[in-house]
Amino acid sequence: GGTSAGALYGMTAAYCDFDKDKIDFYSRDSANSKLTTNDFTIPLISFMSGKKMSNYLIKMMGETYLEDFWVGSYCVSTNYSNATSRVHDRGLAWKQIEASIAIPGIYPPVVIDNQLHVDGGVVDNLPIETMYNYPVRHIIAISLTQLKSRPVDFDETPSAAAMLWDKITGKKKFRLPGITSILVNSLTLNSRQKQEMTKSGVAIYLEMELKGIGMMDDSRWKEIVQKGHDQMKAILESLPKEERFWQPLEKKSLE
């Protein structure tokens, strides 16, 4: 199960039956297709038209429905029309994923059942509670949105000119998130509070450290995959033996 980026990559992994070579292929191919660039439109409801992403999802998944996946899968969007969360576990896979990743202001809303849907992160950025409805004994939750505080080391927000000069000179005096990150993080503030409350009910919880990598910086997918591998490996190795549910416990001798 996943929301937003978790829906995009989680559902792709499930669609590929968790075949690493297939997942790597789509990660590389989508990055080379530059789905998040040169897709601007007249900004009446969003900065991007979303056509490049939509067309790629259709090319990848075609007429596959979520209920066709061998592993039960779902993604979450926000039903803008009635201000509630929507769990998608049936229907055209590409359409449900498109709804889950429709970041307000960045991508246009997606119409499903005559109602508008936007990014699920607005109401539930890490859909742990939804997983309780499935026959799953151990939940592994991976968050791309860190809950820790990130203070800045300046007193006033710099002007656009100052920030541009900072980039040109390479001084890196002003470390500010991009407009996309600000939009998404602002929209998910309430969702992050829910995440803090629900994370205690999972077997393994990981907040990935992705400092320095932008939200739309998909060209660095290999680096992101490696970071995820290394950080998860470190967590697994730090768990005491009695909590390693994927390994059989050593049988005590009867002697």
Task: Give an account of the 3D structure.
This protein is of the alpha/beta class and 255 residues long. The chain is built from 9 helices and 7 strands; from the N terminus they run βαααββαββαβαααβα. Strand 2 (75-79) and strand 3 (84-88) form a beta hairpin. The chain is globular, with a radius of gyration of 20 Å. The mean pLDDT is 87.
Concise summary:
With 255 residues, this protein is of the alpha/beta class.
Order of helices and strands: EHHHEEHEEHEHHHEH
> What global shape is seen?
globular
| Count of helix runs | 9
Which blocks of ≥5 consecutive residues have pLDDT under 50? Answer: none
Measured distance between first and last alpha carbons? 46 Å
Average pLDDT: 87
- Quaternary class: single chain
Largest sheet, strands/sense/barrel: 5 strands, mixed
Secondary structural class: alpha/beta
Number of strands: 7
From the alpha-carbon coordinates, what is the Rg to the nearest angstrom? 20 Å
Percent strand equals 5-15%
Range of helix content:
25-40%
